TrEMBL record:
<dbReference type="Pfam" id="PF04002">
    <property type="entry name" value="RadC"/>
</dbReference>
<keyword id="KW-0645">Protease</keyword>
<feature type="domain" description="MPN">
    <location>
        <begin position="103"/>
        <end position="225"/>
    </location>
</feature>
<keyword id="KW-0862">Zinc</keyword>
<dbReference type="InterPro" id="IPR025657">
    <property type="entry name" value="RadC_JAB"/>
</dbReference>
<dbReference type="InterPro" id="IPR001405">
    <property type="entry name" value="UPF0758"/>
</dbReference>
<dbReference type="GO" id="GO:0046872">
    <property type="term" value="F:metal ion binding"/>
</dbReference>
<dbReference type="InterPro" id="IPR046778">
    <property type="entry name" value="UPF0758_N"/>
</dbReference>
<dbReference type="Pfam" id="PF20582">
    <property type="entry name" value="UPF0758_N"/>
</dbReference>
<keyword id="KW-0479">Metal-binding</keyword>
<dbReference type="GO" id="GO:0008237">
    <property type="term" value="F:metallopeptidase activity"/>
</dbReference>
<comment type="similarity">
    <text>Belongs to the UPF0758 family.</text>
</comment>
<protein>
    <submittedName>
        <fullName>DNA repair protein RadC</fullName>
    </submittedName>
</protein>
<dbReference type="GO" id="GO:0006508">
    <property type="term" value="P:proteolysis"/>
</dbReference>
<keyword id="KW-0378">Hydrolase</keyword>
<keyword id="KW-0482">Metalloprotease</keyword>
<dbReference type="InterPro" id="IPR020891">
    <property type="entry name" value="UPF0758_CS"/>
</dbReference>
Length: 226
C-alpha cells in the first residue's frame, strides 16, 4: 500500500516536495484518485485505469465518459468525475496557451495554435486557419468532419469561409486520428485543388498542416506545395 512506501516516494508528498513534473502518469492519477481499494493501492488502481487506455494512448481519456471510467473496478462516479474534470482543465489550459500565438511566422506557429483544438478528435476534421495581410490569425474554422479515414472537402466551402471573414490568405489544417501525420494521396490531391483555387481567387493557400499525435507535418516544408 502507499502508506507502506517511504514518505518521499508517496505521490502526494513527492508532488509537494519536487513538483508535479517529477511524477509519472500513474502517480499523478493516484493523487487525483486519493484512495485505492481494500484489494489494491491507489497506485495500482491508477495503473489499472491507464492500462485501459494503453492501446489507444492516454490522450483517448478525453473521449471517455463517466460511465466508462466508473466501470473499472475501484473507480466510482466520484473518482471518474475527478479524472474527467482534470482532463478537461488540461484541455482548456492548452487552448488558452495556444491563443497567445497571434502571428504565424511558420508551420510551428500554426501547428501550436491548432493542435489543442484538433489533436484529440476521433474523426478527421478539415479546417482553415484564416490570416490577414500581416499573417495575424483571424480564426480557425471547421470546414468538414469526415470519417476516421477521410474528409470530403469542396473548394467553395473552403473559400466561402475565407471570403466571409475577409481573409487575405489561409493555411489548411486537418488531423489524422491514427496519429500518423504523413499525407495520403487524397490529402495531396485536395491540397493541389485548393492551392489552384486560391490562385484564381487571389486568396493564397500558404501551407497544409497535418496533425498527428502531438506531432505535425507541413506540406510546404516537405516541398509538396508549389
Amino acid at each position: 500500500m502507499v502508506r507502506d512506501l517511504p514518505r518521499d516516494e508517496r505521490p502526494r508528498e513527492k508532488l509537494i516536495a519536487y513538483g508535479a513534473d517529477a511524477l509519472s502518469n500513474a502517480e499523478l492519477l493516484a493523487v487525483l484518485l486519493h484512495t485505492g481499494t481494500r484489494e489494491q493501492s491507489v497506485l495500482h488502481l491508477a495503473e489499472s485505469v491507464l492500462g485501459k487506455f494503453k492501446e489507444r494512448g492516454i490522450a483517448s481519456i478525453v473521449h471517455t465518459s463517466v460511465a466508462d471510467l466508473a466501470g473499472i473496478h475501484g473507480i466510482g462516479p466520484s473518482k471518474a468525475a475527478s479524472i474527467l474534470a482534470a482532463v478537461e482543465l488540461g484541455r482548456r489550459l492548452a487552448k488558452k496557451a495556444a491563443e497567445k500565438v497571434q502571428i504565424v511566422h511558420g508551420p510551428e506557429d500554426a501547428a501550436h495554435y491548432v493542435m489543442p483544438h484538433l489533436r484529440y478528435e476521433q474523426k478527421e476534421h478539415f479546417a482553415v486557419l484564416l490570416l490577414n495581410t500581416k499573417n495575424h490569425i483571424l480564426g480557425l474554422r471547421d470546414v468538414s468532419i469526415g470519417s476516421l479515414s477521410a474528409s470530403v472537402v469542396h473548394p467553395r466551402e473552403v473559400f466561402a469561409m475565407a471570403i466571409r471573414y475577409a481573409a487575405a490568405s489561409m493555411i489548411l489544417v486537418h488531423n489524422h486520428p491514427s496519429g500518423d501525420p504523413n499525407p495520403s494521396r487524397e490529402d495531396l490531391a485536395i491540397t493541389d485543388r485548393l492551392v489552384k483555387a486560391g490562385r484564381i481567387l487571389d486568396i493564397p493557400v500558404l501551407d497544409h498542416i497535418i496533425l498527428g499525435d502531438n506531432r505535425f507535418l507541413s506540406l510546404k516544408e516537405k516541398g509538396m506545395i508549389s
